[in-house]
Amino acid sequence: MKDQSIQAYLASQRTDKNRPTVLAFPVLYPREVLTALDLCAWERWSEHPSSDGADAGKLQGYLCPTVRGAQGVLARKDHGARAAIIPHTCDSMQGLAAIAKSTPGWEIPVVTFRHPRGTDRPSSRLFLRDELKAFIASLEEVFDRKLDLKKLTEAIELHRKLEGLLGEVLRGRPWLDISDEDLYATLRQLEYKHPEDSCEALQPLADKVDRTKPRKGIGLVISGMVPEPEGFFETLDDAGGYVAADDYAAFGRRLPAYDGPIEDDPIGSVVERLLLMPPCPTRSSKVTRRIAHLLKLATDSGARGVILHTVKFCEPELFDVATLRRGLEKEGLKVLHVETEFEPQVTGQIATRLEAFLEMLDDGRSE
Ligand code: SF4
């Protein structure tokens, strides 16, 4: 049903606004370029690997469910999209891009986007600029459209507005009196809505933030890939906790530190904005930067603990878990690591661990 309403929205974007659909796989790509080219991105963060065989045979079974689900989406061909973007943000996605490009039966052009690894260096800017130009050229060719730099400037402004609203909502979370379930139901609309409509969806939440009224419950920082499975936040809520600060790759990790300069150079502005994103293991950010970022989120939001919520077999995230835990606990924050894999519902084991963690925070005891 959810998928049907998304498909209906995207179909209306195609017919009423001449905005073809582009599939976008995790994690980060220059979204402003799509907006400027009048394309509508449908981000696929958490497809359930199918049991109909559509995603079998090409990827190893021990890879994460995100990439196996992505393969299923491409193989089933029922998405209505005219192109797919596969950013090179982890080895699994990189492998999927190579397979997709050499599988003509999937009948969809694949556009890749590579990120510089590790710290921000002068060479990162040069690399990103070249990569961005290649990305634009590929989309121009697929859609037979030319990017207008004036439209790119307007698109950057629109995305800044969207990020401003998202920032108001996420940073205002400790004073926003709605459930996490409702919050994430709205946030997940950003995965397929055009940024104009995403702004409309976020505005009522931003208007509800009332800094005179702190929200009740034990605030937590949550860091991971995607807010799944269903029932996760309900369980957290029942145990007395809520997400006070978000570091999900799909949301908080896409808020640049500031708007970014270079008003008269939109290409340079897109490059800077990519470099201004919070640290993420899929771009090989230093784990010390991640610890500092999570500590700041906890301090600013008054969170008392951190949940590291990883997708099963997600190597980039898992690689950081032990160091993150040590660094955060050294600063007095309690840490819980949970792993999920797009189960239809939260499992009893995860629910018990969430409840025990919240109980421990409530008692103020050490783990
Ligand atoms: S390994 Fe991690 S970053 Fe890569 S696709 Fe899977 S969940 Fe995403």
Q: In terms of topology, how is this protein built?
A:
Elements: H1 2-17, E1 21-24, H2 31-36, E2 40-43, H3 65-76, E3 83-88, H4 91-101, E4 110-114, H5 122-143, H6 149-171, H7 180-187, H8 195-208, E5 218-224, H9 232-238, E6 241-248, H10 266-275, H11 287-301, E7 305-311, H12 315-330, E8 334-340, H13 348-363
Parallel strand pairs: 1-2, 1-3, 3-4, 5-6, 5-7, 7-8
Helix pairs in contact: 3-4, 5-10, 6-8, 6-10, 9-13, 11-12
Task: Please describe what this structure looks like.
The protein has 367 residues and is of the alpha/beta class. The chain has a domain at 2-148: Rossmann fold (3-Layer(aba) Sandwich), CATH 3.40.50.11890. The chain has 13 helices and 8 strands. It has helices at residues 2-17, 31-36, 65-76, 91-101, 122-143, 149-171, 180-187, 195-208, 232-238, 266-275, 287-301, 315-330, 348-363, and strands spanning 21-24, 40-43, 83-88, 110-114, 218-224, 241-248, 305-311, 334-340. It has a 4-stranded parallel β-sheet with strand order 2-1-3-4. Strand 1, helix 2 (31-36) and strand 2 (40-43) form a beta-alpha-beta unit. Helix 9 packs parallel to helix 13. The longest helix has 23 residues, at 149-171. Iron/sulfur cluster binds next to helix 3, helix 4 and helix 12.
Over all CA atoms, what is the radius of gyration?
A: 20 Å
Strand proportion: 5-15%
Cofactors, ions and other ligands in the entry: iron/sulfur cluster
Q: Mean of the pLDDT scores?
A: 93
Major sheet: 4 strands, parallel
CATH class of the domain at 2-148: Alpha Beta
Please list the strands of the largest sheet in the order they lie side by side: 2-1-3-4
Number of strands: 8
Q: What shape does the CA trace take?
A: globular
**Total number of helices:** 13
Which class do the helix and strand fractions yield? alpha/beta
Which stretches are poorly predicted, pLDDT < 50 over at least 5 residues?
none
CATH-defined topology of the domain at 2-148 = Rossmann fold
- What is the CA-CA span between the terminal residues? 42 Å
State the helical fraction.
40-55%
Helix-strand pattern: HEHEHEHEHHHHEHEHHEHEH
CATH arch. level architecture of the domain at 2-148: 3-Layer(aba) Sandwich
